[in-house]
Amino acid sequence: MSELQIPVVGNPELAARWRRATEEPDWVRWSLIGLALAFLALFLVLPLLVVLVGAFEQGMAVWWQAVNEPDAAAAVRLSLLVVALVVPVNLVFGVAAAWAIAKFEFPGKPLLISLIDMPFAISPVVVGLIFVILFGSQGWLGPWLAAHDLRIIFAVPGIVIVIAFGTLPFIARELIPLMQQQGKEEEEASLTLGASGWKTFWYVTLPNIKWGLIYGVILCNARALGEFGAVAVVSGRIRGETNTLPLHIEVLYNEYQFTAAFAVSSLLTGLALLTIAIKSLVEWRAERRRPAEQP
Question: In sequence order, what are the residues at sequence separation of 6 or more whose Cβ sits closer than 8 angstroms to the Cβ of residue 274?
Fold first, then answer.
């Protein structure tokens, strides 16, 4: 029993003063809970309901026709293709950058950390303009790309590049503090016992970071699916070719095809909810494993 608890046990007056000092009144707690629930209902639950009601108000047949329309199907394929390309690249970069930053000391380390955080500080629209200036037909590399018949802007490569840039920090930023907290004693012990660098990574480092890695991949995937500003600048908004799901939804809404826009939005919403469910499952599994791993 701590020193603060000893006088509280046998002194009702002091116990009451202790509760008043350490606990909020009931009306404060319930007010905060009610405010949080009202905020969630207004800004999270209500928009989701609007999307779902708008998507299915004319029946499943209309919904299916909207999501199975050629331009919508092309937008789904493009979005999934971009995710399939971007997430593995950022996974490799995130693990390598986090390992270098957490395990080694080298000149320029603070600069590398700042560069990793840069996509958080730059507007996605500005990111798109930067790559247009670099790779556009009138940009710095435009004449060279045209001479070699390479097309970046208004094509899939440009979309992949800007989304990869925008999602760059997610995996690295999840792993850096985790690896720093774990230290490098286990890796050093493994190398001392004769294991190669690859075996040390596969059997020591990777099991220790797998939950953080999965969490970072989920966040990276969610951001890649929902990226809009940078993609809108570099894609050219070519229907059936360079429109991702968010861009296709905007096109439908601007053309007053509200039911179709809500139907396609329901696909993106479903992917977002699936991402949240997987994220919650990962967090739950990690919390369950943490007490078992503690001595």
Answer: none
| Residues 80/154, Cβ–Cβ less than 8 Å | no
Q: 272 burial class (0-12, 13-18, 19+ CB within 10 angstroms)?
A: middle
**CA proximity to 201, closest of 51, 99, 67:** 99
Separation CA 179–CA 154 (nearest Å): 39
As given in the structure block, the two tokens for residue 71 are 């331009």
pLDDT digit string (tens) for 37-87? 999 889 888 988 999 899 998 999 999 999 999 999 999 999 999 999 999
Residue 15 has pLDDT above 80, yes or no: no
Half-sphere exposure of 106 (CA within 13 A, CB side): 12
| CB-count exposure of residue 21 (10 Å: 0-12, 13-18, 19+) | exposed
Yes or no: say if 52 and 270 are a contact pair by the CB < 8 Å rule: no
Cα–Cα dist 35/39, whole Å: 6
Q: What is the pLDDT of residues 188-207, one digit of tens each?
A: 888 888 888 788 888 888 88
